[in-house]
Design brief:
Largest sheet: none
Radius of gyration: 20 Å
Helix content: over 70%
Shape: flat
Length: about 55
């Protein structure tokens, strides 16, 4: 019985996350992805934070 309740609770969480995800307009998604991409490719602000690579 506990397993069934766990599956139902997990399904409710997935449904809630899906509703939140769909609440963004395509333009909002695009701008968020572009912002994340620019942050990822910008690199660290402090060169000393860059890890040494062999």
């Amino acid at each position: 019985m506990a397993g069934v309740a766990g599956v139902a609770a997990g399904g409710a969480l997935v449904a809630r996350n899906e509703r939140q995800r769909k609440s963004y307009t395509p333009d909002e998604v695009r701008s968020r992805l572009q912002e994340r991409m620019s942050q990822a490719t910008a690199g660290p602000d402090d060169p000393e934070e860059t890890p040494d690579r062999p």
